[in-house]
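Lab manual, section 2.4: Encoding a predicted structure.

Procedure: take the sequence of the chain (206 residues), apply the prediction step described in section 2.3, and record the output as structure tokens. A sample record is shown.
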Amino acid sequence: MGLDITVMIVDWSWLGEVPPRERLSRLRDAWYADETGLWDHGAPAVKGDWEWPRGPDGAFFAVYEFLHTCGSFKAHFWAGERWESLRDHADPLVRTGLDALLLGLIWGGPDGEAEHTDPGFFCDEPGVSYGLLVGRSPDSVRELAATWEGVRPRLGGLRGAFDEHAAVPAARWFPDFEAFTDLLEEWGRVLTEAARRGWGVVGLSE
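Recorded output:
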């Protein structure tokens, strides 16, 4: 089985009520609780939209279900790979913006070592922070959301470069430009909603 990811927006002040060592477990306990309704397998599947939980902690987080990823991190990894193939041929303004956006969320960068979590909020002990793939504070989210709004109108200008340097028609992930930009748009939705609420963004692998 490959790496999975569940992306949530989270009220940072609610998580901050407990010590750093307990914050991920608090979020997981709230997410796994039966009363959220998130685990009702008889409910219609939600894709490309939000799942808003019920229950006592339902006001403090929400889950975004990406449309075509089936919960796999592979889609996000391959978006980064497509960007690596494309970025040297992109307009400098778009390159700067997408570098910042993807480095902040899912892309390892040219050296593969980019961190997608802000230091200090979650405990960094391996046994405590297992499965934390993305952990962006409200301040980081605001910056990333602003970056997204700046680069979004310019995405269409990447089509020619993508078709020439990054398109892989037979590929499972991102065979064409539309699939690539669709995923970016979904991350934009996550960032925009989190920024509107003053919340953070968390990506967990279970």
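Check your result against the sample. The beta strands are 6-10, 49-51, 61-65, 132-136, 200-204.
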